[in-house]
Amino acid sequence: MKAIQFGAGNIGRGFIGAVLSQAGCELVFADVVEDLLTQINTRGEYTVHVSDVNSYDVAVKGVRAVNSGSDAVIEEIASADIITTAVGLRILKFVAPAIAKGIVARKAALNDAPLNVIACENG
Length: 123
Description:
Elements: E1 2-6, H1 10-22, E2 26-31, H2 34-43, E3 45-50, E4 56-61, E5 63-67, H3 71-78, E6 82-85, H4 89-108, E7 116-119
Parallel strand pairs: 1-2, 1-6, 2-5, 6-7
Antiparallel strand pairs: 3-4
């Protein structure tokens, strides 16, 4: 199962990305911060430090990233099973066109598999 996470910030990586990875998803982040995209693609993994009664680390491995304003994100959506967002309410209007183009690309590729789109926003 392939998941595209729009927003590679604290919530995207530290919460949603970790949950998707633990569920066994192939994880692709979509963001516009080039330095962050480069770091994700260079390392291919990151660690989430969970602070609870018992603190522990969660290793998130096999991740990659694409620019959310590029054609690459449309190609990723064309073969995705899940799209999640953690970009903030004011940024959703900028993410929506890429998602719509990705859905059109899915149809053009004759991909009729279900696609779940989940907005993980506080609002």
